[in-house]
Write a structure and sequence with these properties.
A hairpin with a 2-residue loop joins strand 3 and strand 4 (62-65). The relative contact order is 0.15. This protein has helices spanning 30-37, 93-100, 110-123, 129-135, 146-161, and strands spanning 8-15, 18-25, 56-59, 62-65, 78-80. Strands 2-1-5-3-4 form a 5-stranded mixed beta sheet, with helices on both faces. It has 5 helices and 5 strands; from the N terminus they run E-E-H-E-E-E-H-H-H-H. With 169 residues, the chain is an alpha+beta fold. Bound molecules: FE2/S2 (inorganic) cluster (FES) (2 copies).
Length: 169
Amino acid sequence: MTSPVATSTVIRVRVNGRDVEALVPVRLTVAELLRERLGLTGTKVSCEMQVCGACTVLVDGNPVSSCTALACDLDGTEVLTVEGLAQGRDLHPVQEAFMAANALQCGFCTPGFVMMAVALLDTCPAASADEIREWMDGNLCRCTGYAPIETAVTLAAARTDDGSPEDDQ
Ligand code: FES
Ligand code: FES
């Protein structure tokens, strides 16, 4: 006799500092969990095939394409989305840098770029221009152009490397 195949599973995950327990279908994506179950619509979905980076979130500090990652694999992890970056009314230095450099137009790609930049600067606070380009390589923008985005990440890197407020995040 074959055992029944599980179609849902319970996960316990910390999202932006909040403990969440949820029964999730095994094919539910992380983006669907965040946007449809938890109301965290800052994470955007565009290509749905791990090509554009719009859906990037951090799982245990690592950038992940939430459009293809499965929610059932989040059990026991910590997830950070763009909603979890600001401390009250204080924006994260990467968010401030994007504003200062006018690094967005429609903004659809922005949460993905911002989360990738946060991961980069957490890993490599003094990121070089080449490292910034390499890390941002998987994120696509259709309207701003990449120069202001690169400027923003460079600005944020300079602040982070100087022992700026990033150190308090
Ligand atoms: S929507 Fe996930 S990579 Fe494009
Ligand atoms: S700001 Fe519009 S797609 Fe990047």
